[in-house]
Amino acid sequence: MDESRDEQIKGAVKAYYGARAAEVVPSCCSPEPCCGEANVEVEAAAATETDSRCCADAGTVSSLGCGDPLAFVEFQEGQVVLDLGSGFGMEAILAAQMVGESGKVIGLDLTPEMIDKAKKNAERAGVEHIAEFRLGEMEEMPVDNESVDWIVSNCVVNLSPDKERVFQEAYRVLKPGGKMVISDLVSSDLPEEVKKDLTSWAQCLGGTVEEAEYLGLMRSAGFDEVGVVDRFDASAALLGSTCCGPAPDATNGPKIESIRVSATKTTSG
Description:
Distance between the termini: 28 Å
Helix content: 25-40%
Number of strands: 7
CATH superfamily: Vaccinia Virus protein VP39
Order of helices and strands: HHEHEHEEHEHHHEHE
Number of domains: 1
Mean pLDDT: 82
Shape: globular
Strand content: 15-25%
Number of helices: 9
CATH topology: Rossmann fold
CATH architecture: 3-Layer(aba) Sandwich
Radius of gyration: 17 Å
CATH class: Alpha Beta
Low-confidence stretches: 25-63, 241-250
Largest sheet: 7 strands, mixed
C-alpha cells in the first residue's frame, strides 16, 4: 500500500471518529444493530466493569469497540497500562481503577475530539490523575521504550494501514515480560470493493485481514505466546441486512470474527 493511500485511510478514520465524538449516541447495551455507528459510548460517571461486560455479551462495547479485552487481563496495582485507540476513554478509566493510585494509564488516540472527550470522562470518573490521554498514531507511539507493563486495545489495530508497524511499536514500548491483550476484527473472503472503500476502513471492515496474517504479524514483531483466547462470529451483525446490505451467506460469503488475542514480550529489545 503506497504512502498516499495510507494517508487517505488515516484521514478518513480521523474524520469519521472526530464526527462520532461530537454525536449523542445510544447506550452501548441498547438493542441497536452492531455496525460501526451503533457501537457507542457509556457515560464515564456510571462506568463499571458490569457495563463493559454487558456490552461484550451483546457484541458491542463502549468506546466504539468490538469486544472486551479487559476481561482477559490481570492488572496489578502500580502497573503502567497503554490503551491503543482510547476513544471515549472507557477502557482507560476502568484500567485506572484497577491499577490504583500508584499506577498509570496512557490513552493514545489519533483524534483530538476523542482526546478531549476522554479527558472530560476521566475527570467525571475521578481518575484524571491516573489516566492521561495523548494525541498520536499507533505507527509512531509517543511512548518511551520498555515503559509499559500492559497494552490493551479495543477494535483499533484493524484501522491501521500498517499493522506490522503497529505491532513493532507495541513491542518497543512494552517492558520485558509485558503483555498485550487486544480485541479486534479479522476477516476472510472480504470483497475487494470493501477493502478499497475508505468508509469501510473507518467502520472497521475495510482494514481487516485474515486471522493467520494478523497473528503472524504479531509474531514477526517479536511477540511470544501469541494466541486467541476468545472469539465470536460477527458476520451477521456487521454484514447483515440491518445496516450493511444483505445478510452474508454462512457457507460461501465473507466472514468477520471478533477475536481477543493475548501475547507476551519475553525478552528485551
